[in-house]
UniProtKB/TrEMBL annotation:
InterPro entries: Ribosomal_uL13, Ribosomal_uL13_bac-type, Ribosomal_uL13_sf. Keywords: Ribonucleoprotein, Ribosomal protein. The keyword Ribosomal protein applies. It comes from the Eukaryota. PANTHER family: LARGE RIBOSOMAL SUBUNIT PROTEIN UL13M, RIBOSOMAL PROTEIN L13. One of its GO terms (cellular component) is mitochondrial large ribosomal subunit. It comes from Bombus impatiens (Bumblebee). Pfam families: Ribosomal_L13. One of its GO terms (biological process) is translation. The keyword Ribonucleoprotein applies. This is 39S ribosomal protein L13, mitochondrial. The gene is LOC100745841. SUPFAM superfamilies: Ribosomal protein L13. GO terms for molecular function: mRNA binding; structural constituent of ribosome. Belongs to the universal ribosomal protein uL13 family.
Length: 178
């Protein structure tokens, strides 16, 4: 076997670490993308009964975006197993308690309901901000592209570039905006 072929062989069977930035991303659409890397669906050796998936680190999960009024209307169900132990929690309540839980539940639901789903979820690492342990960041070799580009805020643009933007109206210096 040639050296090139050995490299390809190793790359196929190696467990790769990916990072995904969830800022301004819909967690339910992103879950299908994350699932592809967690389960190893992109690898040529994929088999449903084979553990060939990779590790995925999701950062900035507190910055997710749900469309419309989904924060007030989406409900999550939980049952303790005891009589009368059913609870329904709104998305904004769940997100304020634990900012990582919505992304975790979305990825869990996106996967097939097999027995391997729980073991596959152990390779998903979710962080509410971009503070990731250095041991994990040393392993990362790939960045998953975001589905939606993050818009640039006006206060993030330097003052020199803001002055170059053409103005439609030049207010007098003594004018008071209401």
């Amino acid at each position: 076997m040639s050296l090139l072929r050995k490299g390809q062989h190793w790359g196929t069977f190696a467990c790769v670490w990916h990072i995904f930035d969830a800022t301004w991303q819909n967690p339910y659409k992103s879950a299908h993308l994350i699932k592809k890397y967690l389960m190893g669906l992109y690898k040529p050796i994929y088999h449903p009964m084979n553990q060939c998936g990779d590790h995925v680190i999701v950062i900035n999960s507190k910055e997710i975006a749900l469309r419309g009024d989904e924060w007030q209307k989406r409900v999550y169900f939980h049952h303790t197993g005891f009589h009368g132990g059913a609870t329904w929690t709104l998305a904004w309540e769940l997100h304020s308690k634990d900012p990582t839980m919505i992304v975790k539940k979305a990825v869990y639901r996106a996967m097939d309901g097999t027995l391997q789903r729980r073991y596959t979820m152990q390779r998903l690492h979710i962080f509410p901000d971009d503070n990731v342990p250095k041991e994990m960041l040393d392993n990362v070799t790939n960045q998953i592209k975001q589905l939606r580009s993050v818009p640039v805020k006006l206060y993030d643009i330097p003052q020199e570039e803001r002055d170059k933007i053409p103005r439609l109206i030049k207010y007098p210096s003594d004018y008071q905006l209401k």
